Amino acid sequence: MKFPSFGFCLDSNPLLWGGVIFLVLLKLLLISGSAVQMVYSPHDDDLYVSRAFYLLLDGSLGPYDARLLVKQLGISLWLAGSRFQGITYLLSINLFFAIAGIYFIAALSRLNINRVIFLLVFGLYLFNSVSIGHQWFRVMREPVAISLLVVILASMLFVLVYLEKKNLAILHFVTLAATFTFALMVREEDVLLYALLAMFVSLVLWKYWPVFREQSWFKRSGVLFLVILPFIFASVGDGTTRSYVERHYGAPLLNDFREGEFPRLIAAIRSVESRKDNRHVMITQEALGKIRVTVPLFAQVIDRLPKPSETSYSCARFKVCSEWSNGWELFWIKDAAFQAGFTPTLLAGQSYFRNVRLEI
């Protein structure tokens, strides 16, 4: 087993890389006239752009309100970083998508597979219907998240390819660590990537184990450090962003919609028994009615919530007309508490949600 090296070498086949460059330029040309769309507000597209604007303006995420921390910070950081570099949003996500695909086929090219097949696969990847659909041109997290996942998989594949040659490549471990760390900041669901990373680390250690005992303690320590590097990066990234939020808003919460007191409050509300049970409905009107009577502290918030009706989107799509389907009610509860003046700051919000929860 060789000591870890940087190890990155592209396939020298001119047909493959000439075709790749042509396809990338063609894709950029075809989308060059597309317009960026901002559809959903205030909890999606508009939120990401607003936070990016304030990041560039004064280094904060903007004035605190009920919506500021309901989504991860990653896409706002991406938007601010792209603008700071003078790169338009559409160019940034499409270049990143192309680069991620190139990185992946660069890993595949180390295997004994026909290069024409690589080119066909890359073409399908680059021009798939998702990346040219209208949703791709919205200010949403998915384009960046998809590209990050491709980079993560490509870096893992590179590590495994080098491992077959009894070598560990530093460059690809660092790429994996940095990409994994940022992916956790983009989408809440990407915390599930820890499961993928754990399986990958287990596989690397299992393949390396036969020669692991033959190495010096210095080499063993170096290899173990590389293997756990993604976990170290993720921990440092999480701590740094939490420290940033605490410095600006008073509490180390990256997402006050899924951590802290608000999700505990929602759990308490959902624990109230109701005669109705619908898998589309998270919080019933009956439960809210009971809480309004018994918890005066929460009455003003409940009174501000929109009432379900036969003209609602919930009724039109899910045929749920006397309740609100999906999770919209959760956002509205948070909005109503802020509008009622109970949660003017992050700390005040945590205190209020805790008091209501205890009353319930």
List the helices and strands and how they pair.
Layout: H1 14-31, H2 45-58, H3 74-84, H4 89-108, H5 115-126, H6 142-164, H7 170-186, H8 193-212, H9 217-249, H10 261-270, H11 285-294, H12 299-304, H13 313-318, H14 328-339, H15 346-359
Helix pairs in contact: 1-4, 1-5, 2-3, 4-5, 4-6, 6-7, 6-8, 7-9, 8-9, 10-15
Give an overview in words:
This protein is an all-alpha fold and 360 residues long. The protein folds into two domains: 14-249, no CATH class; 261-359, no CATH class. 63% of the residues lie in helices and 0% in strands. The chain contains 15 helices and no strands. Helix 1 packs parallel to helix 5 (115-126), helix 4 (89-108) runs parallel beside helix 6 and helix 8 (193-212) runs antiparallel to helix 9 (217-249). The longest helix is centred in the middle third of the chain and has 33 residues, at 217-249. It is globular. The model is unreliable at 1-8 (pLDDT under 50).
Estimate the strand proportion.
under 5%
How many domain units?
A: 2
Structural class: mainly alpha
Rg computed from alpha carbons, rounded to a whole number of angstroms: 24 Å
Count of individual helical segments: 15
**Number of strand segments:** 0
Order of helices and strands: HHHHHHHHHHHHHHH
> Sheet with the most strands?
none
Helix content: 55-70%
- Low-pLDDT ranges: 1-8
Principal-axes shape call:
globular
Termini Cα gap: 61 Å
Query: Which whole number gives the mean pLDDT?
Result: 88
